[in-house]
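Provenance and format

Records in this collection were gathered into a single text stream. Each protein contributes a sequence line and a token line. The two records reproduced below are adjacent in the stream.
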Amino acid sequence: MAGTRIDGNEVAKSVKARVKEAVAVIKGQGISPCLATILVGDNPASATYVRNKHKACEDVGILTRDHKLDSSITQGEFDRVIEELNQDSLVHGILVQLPLPAQLDEFASTSRISPLKDVDGLTPHNAGLLAANKAVLVACTPSGIMEIFEYYNINLDGKNVVVINRSSLVGKPLCHLLLEKNATVIMCHSKTRNLAGVCQSADVIITAVGDRTRFTLTPEMIKEGAIVIDVAISRFNDKLAGDADYDGIIQKASFASPVPGGVGPMTVAMLLRNTVTAASLSSQIGRQS
């Protein structure tokens, strides 16, 4: 019997409804939550992502500021844009759309964002707080995955969870969040030996490779009743696809997320939640000062 299809759009809708209510409350306190986005160059995919984020902000009442920078911008010029936004009290969240051109250092650039405005949860400060189980602003995709588990009442206590990704965007922050829920976590990557065997022992598999020419999670790699969360998205055979052979896996898994329509909508929803959280933090600081 087929497992349950995880509907990321449905979960995201529930998050957005709560965000919209929170925006109304904080506006009643005289604060209008505002997200500033920075797009360097004219990459079509990145431009689409930014437009989608602006539209989502509009839907819940969050203001946006759109900063489009020339692809030839220098590191110094870019840093000055970040600093201006850090100092702008009307801006509560700063999002740098990645990837950046080769002349810009992604780590150095995102690290300049004020931790209080770091709605992507990428700064070393917020990453450190996450490791200490003290983070308020957490990377959007990992926190979106955790929201999915909560929505579907999936208890992670004692579960063996395999994460196929070790990036700072997904794998590393996700491992901290999973450990907070008492999961036993195995992080896999391109050098992992016998990946299929590791996956077959997992109660939960979260995969984020993003290259179907190199890796596909097949039904043979999961055990009966496993939970599969597919984070990846890329073009494969002229269609959007994740890492998993969804049609096959849903026949064996208890829960599985499709691509598109799974984790993707959650990333944007958690960005909205982080933005209103950052606005709330700024209001608390304002009252204390």
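Adjacent record:
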Amino acid sequence: MLNIDKDTFTLRQTMQRSDFECYHYLDPVPPAVDFHEHEFYEVFFFLSGDVSYIIEGRTYQLRPGDILLTDNRDIHKPDIRPGKAYERFVIWIDPDFLKRAGTLGSDLTLCFTDASAKKYKRIRPESSVFTHLRAICEKMLRSRDDQEFGSGTLSYIYLIEFLVYLNRAYFATPDAIRKDVTENEKINEVVAHINDNLAEDLTLDRLAEACFISKSHLAHQFKTYTGLTLYQFIIKKRVTVARNMIREGTPVMEACMKCGFNDYSNFLKAFKREFGRSPKEFSKRT
């Protein structure tokens, strides 16, 4: 299995453009990818491989053509098994760009926000829709690499077209269909409680009491379904939400306190460990 060093992985997970990026990846040897999160919305368009994908405690077994939607709060990780080439399109979109694009007439974030609200992140489009979306991705990639006049403008047009049909595909999927997902209702409840109460005391004792589950069962089952220990998940979630707050203009110390870090030095260490820069450096960059 190919291991990606931290710097290379960080580069591959960081937007180099201001608004969006589109990539086509084909890995004959499956890379080892750790749990991560993004500053942006991600569309993960699966083409081939033997892959399951963990998002916030739910594991999706993927079929070619499946599309996953993640926002800038989701902790996620692919589990890529050897034997088949791992191929996918990945589109990263800046949240501010999507807000601006909404002035064209439609809120193109709806599929992301609705998927987050319903805690179900997959689209499984019909074959004709899959073919159409793939063709748009290929046009986006060609225009990205093309040097002819207007190619950059066309790439934006193709992205908007893709997002329109992505939303249509999402809302055409019946709410009742939840296929190929491994999940646990009690762990889902714990994850939801953490997401809704980041500023609170999220000890094992408090979570077990709040969610009516034994401490030993919670500790074991949480790692089984999320892939992370309870402590690892809470710290990742806290620094992720703090990063988003800082990105939107919240003062660093305020973000620190609102995300449950009562000690700035601990917040600083966790933030630098996760993102490779201090909160203040990140604030200046954004």
